[in-house]
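Input record (one chain):
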Amino acid sequence: MGPSFESQLSKLNEGDMFRRPMPNMHSVAEIISHLTFWRKETIVKIKTGRGFVTDDDAGNWLSNDVLMNKGWNAILKEHDENLSELISLLETKDDSFLEEGEYYDSDFNGTFNYSFAIERMLHHDIYHLGQLGMVIKFLKIKS
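The corresponding structure, as predicted from the sequence alone:
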């Protein structure tokens, strides 16, 4: 329901991806990089049974300067490939793994079913999709 990441991102040109519409708002590139970071961690949890990063990890929110050096096409490619990897990984599982399998989460300091990781990741993506909508709206107003 509603706009997808792809439809939201198509509203901007490459230069817009690194612009912050207001001093305390993240850029589109920062948000997409942040989502990729946590999706990678979800994949690690599913593959190894243990999460390794926390909110304080340096890769959680990379700066615009770091991301500009990486380039928008590389950021988007990494995001898309990462999503494809997660989908492929989940396709190898049946639904029972969600409730029967467990992993240790360093960020929450406890053991959880995989359904917790998947649900949290989906909620996280939805939250940031809304945030992207707001950032894009402010960018368009300022243009």
